[in-house]
Amino acid sequence: MNAPIEDYALLSDLETAAMIGRDGSVDWLCLPRFDSPACLAALLGTRDNGLWRVAPVGGGTCADRAYRQDTLVLDTRWQTPTGAVRVTDFMPPRAQLPCLVRIVEGLSGTVRLRSELRLRFHQGRVTPWIRAVDQCAVAVAGPDAVWLHTDGRVRAVPGEGSTVHEFTVPAGARLAFTLAWSPSHLPEQPAPLFVPAETVLKETCDFWRRWTARCRYEGPYREAVLRSLITLKALTYAPTGGVVAAPTTSLPGRVGGDRNWDHRYCWLRDSTLTLSCLLRSGYREEATAWLDWLVRAIAGDPAYLQTVYGVGGQRLLPETEAPWLPGYEDSRPVRFGNAAVNQFQLDVYGEVLDTLHLSLRAGIPLPAHLWDLVEALMAHLQRHWREPDQGLWQVRGPARQFVHSKVMVWVAADRALRMGALLGRNGNADRWRAMREEVHRQVCRQGWDPRRRSFVQSYGSPALDASALLIPRLGFLPAGDERVRATVRAMRGLTHGGFVRRYAPDGPGAHAVDGARGAEGAFVACTLWYADALAATGRPARAREEFERVLAVRNDVGLLSEQWDPDAGRQLGNTPQAFSHIALVETAFALTASRSDAARIPRIPAG
Predict the structure, then answer these.
(1) pLDDT per residue as tens digits for the range 246-301
(2) In this structure, are residues 213 and 545 in contact, taking their beta carbons and an 8 Å threshold?
């Protein structure tokens, strides 16, 4: 059986990530990048698909664990009948080649431990050749070489396709394992193997504490905000500034189902919220790097604007299936790559222009060709905005006239006009203003259902969609508009167990709109949007209640996946999810502001 998704903690070197369970097992690791093939893939299969476990010989789960304050360094404590031991796991921010360090320290008595490294390259499939080189073991398969070094005398135990060490740690003793990747054609041992582990540990802690010291949030939710910002930083591919949606693939939205997608890429839908989150939290350098990634990624013909790109800005992300992996709790298929690159989504044009406008207002240096880019995007949008699309949720069912997509078309025209005013470029203002007004009239007429008293998912459909909660935040209508307030009230129809779904099931066991089978969990980000909208419409106490409900389902180290299953009481979907943590930070800022604004916001009747 796979461990619960909420059992996993995150390690990152700002170029890739590892997921480690409460049993001391690293069950997911892609090297050398987030989107590289996995060499440890037990998360989506069994131990034979690759893991690295360091734990007492008796196994089991740890007594407790926690990140060191304001860092991404994980301490895990084990209590056994013979003594106690601590394992400290971290990935130093990369200066050369990727490495993962595990330091074992005896706390009391003596503890017998076992380190088992079972590398399986090419997405948990290929067993490498393993050989000894000086004090290291090196595993090679195709282009990859992974080296394992230990700084103490430990006994190697023969293992089939694995590297196993058994050792006893008395109180006060320390032993470090360092795993490092290098291209297999390089004969020399990677330099990170020979840096003392204690030195690397101090440098890593210092790096994270310097970074977190820049956080500007000082409200009542600082601990949760800071952990979410650390997580967002950990999901950033430092060489380019791209932020991946999650470090994992194919963790299911429904256990045993086929809602299994690869999130190790960068989504334009996240762009404005990511930039806003970073800027208001004090991380201008990261915001600028994200903007630079965005501008490079979308360069070219606006007709080929994608919803998702690789961490380097690459466009080709072919979706394939991995039949040799049984999937997390038999959730098949396991997918690598994402076919959403081929979808037509109108909302991304609004996201890009909203991001550029926010950057301009924040004083971030923008490229000289900015206005050419704005004009090209708007010219394409003017020709195509009336077409149906796949929408924010990248549905794999038929294209529709999604309300959120049309709202984002309005956002695109609105932000283009605002940028033109700031830059003194008004040559297209009349056309863009006419387009903005036409879209607004159409959405208010065809996107509003007078019987449901709510904005709906698509024209002609009575179905609700949580994306309507973003209408006041985007400025399409003010929060005080009765249609906005009524829509917020109507969203109770999407709640389940106190959490908000993206949209409601169309029938027993099916979502006809998205082309996938079976139900799914409630979306964490949607629940946070609900809290934000409640605060904006004059219900700050209820908003805090919703927000704190989300805080309560973070795992023991403060991480959120994409979804929450209120019935089973467990996390679902890829983890940790940037969309969830960005929404947490944004809503925390909104709630903190609402404390001072509450007296000035008109109240609406409860219920």
Answers:
(1) 999 999 999 998 889 999 999 998 888 899 999 999 999 999 999 999 999 998 88
(2) no
Q: Is 242 helix (H, G, I), strand (E, B) or coil?
A: strand
Q: What are phi and psi of 176, to 5 degrees?
A: -120, 140
Answer left, alpha or beta for residue 27, where phi above 0 means left and psi between -120 and 50 means alpha: alpha
Tokens read off for 368: 């000289």
Pairing of strands 99-118, 129-133: unpaired
Give pLDDT, residue 604: 30
Distance CA 356, CA 348 (A): 12
Helix, strand or coil for residue 393? coil
Measured distance CA(361)–CA(384) in Å, rounded: 28
Q: How far are the Cα atoms of 89, 111, 143, 263 from residue 107, in angstroms, in the given order? A: 16, 9, 40, 39
Is 457:500 a contact under the CB 8 Å cutoff?
Answer: no
Phi/psi of residue 20, each to 5°? -125, 130
244 CB-near residues (< 8 Å, 6+ apart): 34, 35, 235, 236, 237, 263, 264, 265, 266, 311, 578
Which pLDDT value is given to residue 47?
Answer: 95
Reported as type and span, the H/E element at residue 79 is strand 74-80
| Pairwise CA distance, residues 226 & 217, whole Å | 8
Q: What is the pLDDT of residues 496-522, one digit of tens each?
A: 999 999 998 654 333 567 666 667 899
More confident residue, 189 or 229: 229
Model confidence at 413: pLDDT above 60: yes
Cβ contact 382:391 at 8 Å: no
Burial of residue 391 (CB within 10 Å: 0-12, 13-18, 19+) is buried
The tokens of 469 are what? 């909660």
DSSP readout, 418-454?
Answer: HHHHHHT--TTHHHHHHHHHHHHHHHHHHSEETTTTE
Q: DSSP string of 488-513?
A: HHHGGGGEETTEE-SB--SBTTEETT
Question: For residues 140 and 182, what is the distance between their CA atoms, to the nearest angstrom?
Answer: 10
* CA–CA separation, 2 and 25 (whole Å): 11
Tokens representing 536 are 């904006």
At 568, give phi and psi (nearest 5°).
-85, -15
SS3 content of the chain, % helix, strand, coil (to 5): 35, 25, 40
Please give the structure tokens belonging to residue 324: 């040799």
Are 455 and 471 in contact by the 8 Å Cβ rule? The answer is yes
Q: Which residues pair with 353 in a beta bridge?
A: none
8 Å CB contact between 4 and 571: yes
Which pLDDT belongs to residue 159?
A: 65
Q: Residue 95's pLDDT is what?
A: 78
Q: Is-contact 156 164, C-beta < 8 A?
A: yes
538 φψ region: left (φ > 0), alpha (ψ -120 to 50), beta (else) = left
Q: What does the alpha-carbon distance between residue 58 and residue 79 come to, in Å, rounded to a whole number?
A: 11
